[in-house]
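Work Package 3 (structural annotation) set out to generate three-dimensional models for the target panel prioritized at the project kickoff. During this period the team completed the workflow that converts sequence records into discrete structure tokens, so that structures can be stored uniformly alongside our sequence database. As a representative example, we reproduce one entry of 233 residues exactly as it appears in the project archive.
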Amino acid sequence: MKNDTKTNISSKNTLAIQASSWTFDRISQMSRDDISNLSHNATARGQFEVAELCQSILKTLPATRNSAGKKSSSKSVGDETENLAIASLEKFGRELIQLYDLSEKTARKLSRDIANFTPHKFMGKDGFVKTGGKGKKGALKFDKYISYRIQHETLVFSVVKPNETAEVLYEIQASPGVLPAPKKLSEVRQGIDELDINKAPRYAQYFSQFDEAANLFKLLIDKFAPKIQPGGS
């Protein structure tokens, strides 16, 4: 007989996820490791509601103790939060590609009157997000992004984590005239000094919630990028 009061999930086993079957009460009865495994598998299968529910429950669990008896937060929780944020950005980017022509070819064509124009590749290889320079150099815990450039406008949606203990932030870069509450990037990100690199100041708006940042980015993409016409290639 199936026992719903205790659910064992092994990361080595294949997990068939049905979003409707994973309730708050059911997940709450599981161990921290099982919840982390469920979150990871849900993210991999695109069941983001399940993954987000797992993350909200993990945040309510008491701190674990290390071998010395000292309290410490579970590293896997932080990693799962990062993985979920990155997976959400990748899914969102793929959705936009289905709605708008974000190709380099079209951006170059529509910006042919701009001298030395260089378009951005919207996403990285095989539909994954790109890694920012600060993330590659270790100046940020991680820096993943998608971006679009057309005419004089460059739009960037980044998922950033300044350091190991900081919260994940969602960052929209654009010209200050199109951002509701812009801040100079150098005011928020350490190590960026526009005067030293002889570039015009870059501006960004920050959010703690993915959906809020995604809504703004989609509005900006809708403003600047051509839509894919029904029946078009």
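Residues 119 and 149 are 5 Å apart (CA to CA).
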